[in-house]
Every structure is written in C-alpha cells, then in structure tokens.
Amino acid sequence: MIYPWIWARLPGRFLGKLATAVLLVIVVLAVLWFAVFPMAEALLGLDEVTVGP
C-alpha cells in the first residue's frame, strides 16, 4: 500500500512521475552501494577468513 501512496504524491503527469520514480530508485541504490554496504562490510568482517587446522 505504500507504493500507491508514493505514486500519488509524485509531481507531474505519468512521464514526470515515472522519471521521478526512476531517479528516486537510482538515488536509493547509490546510497546503499556507496554508503550502507561498505559500512556493513566493515562491521561484519566478511574479509576475515579462517581456514585450516
């Protein structure tokens, strides 16, 4: 139900709403890729591999 709420509040007609929605998705993905995922990787320690006896 959140997506119709967001769509109704985007400005413009269909093409304007579509362009704004695509831009919002790109911004969210960029923030995740460049800020959230590197922070999570540092906290989780995914590069610390222990293999062997």
Number of strands: 0
Sheet with the most strands, sense and barrel status: none
Radius of gyration (Å): 19 Å
% residues in beta strands: under 5%
Query: What is the count of helical runs?
Result: 2
Please give the alpha-carbon distance between the first and last residues.
52 Å
Keywords: Membrane, Transmembrane, Transmembrane helix
Transmembrane segments: 21-40
Lay out the secondary structure.
Blueprint lengths: L1 H8 L4 H31 L9
What characteristics describe this protein?
membrane; 53 residues; mainly alpha; transmembrane; 0% strand; 2 helices; transmembrane helix
Briefly characterize the structure.
Keywords: Membrane, Transmembrane, Transmembrane helix. The protein is mainly α and 53 residues long.
